[in-house]
Amino acid sequence: MDVKEIRAMDHEKKKRIGLLMGILCALYWGVWYAPGYAIYVTPLIADVYDNMIIAGYSEDVAGVLQAVFLTAVNAIACAVLLFVWNGGLGKMGELKRTIVQVKSVTKYYILAGICGACAVSGTYIAALFLSPGFAAIAGLLYPIIGTIMSVLYLKQKVSKRGYLAIIVLLAGGITLYSGSLVTGGVDSANPLIGCIGGIMAAVGWGFEGAVAGKALDLTEPDIGLHLRFIFEGLFWIIVLIVLVICGVPIFDTIGGLFEPTTFLLVLLIGLSFAWCYVTWYKSFPMIGVARGQAIASLYAACGVIFLCIFLGPAEALQYNDDSMWTIVGFTIAGLIICLIGSFLLVTEDAENTATLREGS
Fold first, then answer.
1. pLDDT tier, 356 (very low <50, low <70, confident <90, very high otherwise)
2. pLDDT in tens, 245-294
3. Which end is more exposed in the chain, N or C (fewer Cβ atoms within 10 Å of the end residue's Cβ)?
4. Which alpha helices (DSSP H) does the chain contain, by range?
5. Global pTM?
């Protein structure tokens, strides 16, 4: 679906498709946290950490480098899978035509790739230094940043109901994890680094939405998100090469990538995250950056649900016998609040969902 077809749609159809894309994004994003956290126990990622320790780095530095390596694997896997996706759709010619438009388009996807690199590495750091549940919640401030940027930079309109829905969704996401904060259930040797990772996730994804929203006025979402992952992959390749030149043994266990369990997890990470971004980017031209990010923020609730399914509630929510009922209670309350916020967005009048830039 190209830009002209999107602009030709009536508001009601844009709203339906945009909301569906946002909901699918939340589901894929939520699923991503399960393999994204499980891969930490595979020999490939575990050995990266052990090699850093043997080389004399502190546990904190080793953990951050471990997250950097995993983020690079995530980005490269998505870029490769999207070559298959766009190749199957017959859009490789469009990719070539778009990438040469550096001043009008490509520069925005370079910035989106860098912002995304900040966000994804931040969420991995938050998962490692705090918990996967906190990582799923920590980035929830990103719709606020995205909304501010979409209004000031993209000149998109957000109704009062839209703002209310964003606030309710944020309140629901924060409530999801408040049980752990109240009970002191967060057990980490260095929670500050985990909190910094959460801030990186919120800022990175918030700015990425605004930057990508600018470029999506001129390009197809499938092509745009592929460029974004190509540039993020190149960014991480450069970072890893610099680390190797500086003597960091980060590639010593790269052969473990092809161990069956590890390879399966990398494939699941790439598939879930690539599809998450496909639907995320498709929602922006339909319902705007602010609403697209708001409905996709349901990923926090989906992430907690899928983590509980695949890892078990105790591992996902990090509770013990004393804190179980408090944490589970806050989690259920947060899920209900998130559903209310989603209802406010879904039932918004289609005319209010129109997000064409002012003056266009």
1. very low
2. 988 888 777 777 778 888 899 999 999 999 999 898 888 888 877 778 87
3. C
4. 3-8, 11-38, 43-54, 59-88, 92-99, 107-129, 132-138, 142-152, 160-183, 191-215, 221-245, 260-296, 299-311, 313-317, 324-346
5. 0.82
Residue 309: is its pLDDT beyond 70?
yes
Under 8 Å between Cβ of 340 and 172:
yes
Give 65's contacts (C-beta < 8 A, 6+ positions apart): 48, 49, 52, 57, 243, 248, 250
- pLDDT digit string (tens) for 165-189? 878 877 887 787 677 667 655 555 6
Please provide the size of the chain in residues. 360
Name 262's Cβ contacts closer than 8 Å, sequence gap at least 6: 39, 42, 43, 44, 45, 256
In 3D, which of 146, 158, 148, 166 has the Cα closest to residue 207? 146
Angle at 97 between CA 91 and CA 101, to 5 degrees: 135
Q: State the CB neighbour count (10 A cutoff) for residue 166.
A: 24
